[in-house]
Amino acid sequence: MKDIKEYLLEPYKNHSKKRIYEWFIEDLQEYYNNDIPEDVMERIHNGELFDYILENLNTHDVKKLQDKIKKYFSDKYKFEFETVLGDEDEGKEKNSKKSFYIHGRTLAIEQMYKDEDLNNLIQFYGYYIPKDHRPMSSYLMISPLYAESATDLVYKSCHGKLYHFTTKNNEESILKNGLRCKKGTYRDFPARIYFYASNRGVGPKAKAFADEVIDGFDRKKYGASVLKIDLNKIGKNIDFYTDEYMDEKEAVYTYTNIPKECITKVDVKL
User: Which one, of 158, 159, 125, 161, lies nearest residue 142 by Cα?
Assistant: First the structure.
């Protein structure tokens, strides 16, 4: 019996670009934690290669997200859902009917707001918690986020050059093992890896972005580290994305692991 990878690669086994398709399948398995949806497998086996991550980010399946939140977090928190808007509402943002509230006790809502696993799940399904969330509130608003491909920005405009900002206690592990999409308590969904896309070094804008993505407490404790990513050192292209939540167009993310061969330390003071 064929394993999933062998099955998916079957249509491409005699193709001149077989290794490209192998990378595609490997990234797919990593993204879905080896639990690739059947409809996705069927499309790939029929020869349809597509940006499955971008598609997933822009699907905005409210029911699927709510089902996952219930599955993983109902034992941890007490909450309920409420639709925010309906089709009849006018003057609202596009597809606002896909927004919803999570209601609960104030303490539970604040814990959910800070829950890294919950936030990763929400992002995985193309949603976000708006920046104007009010502290000590009894609800969280969950809104759809519209992602765009940033692959051309990375490879054409920035010539495959990126920067990753972290704290010094992570530096040695990243240089040794590469950047890997961290899995939370629930392995269904990975966390994004964020970068600043630039081939001009780390200027004031990049440093301002670093201030946003590095935790202030950890930075004070360990210090900040700048890592340069050169994607030209590997033979495969990696897909990158940006979304409307990001203020800087140079701020990009991926769900694909970055090998250590691409990563070097840069002596830049943040």
Answer: 125
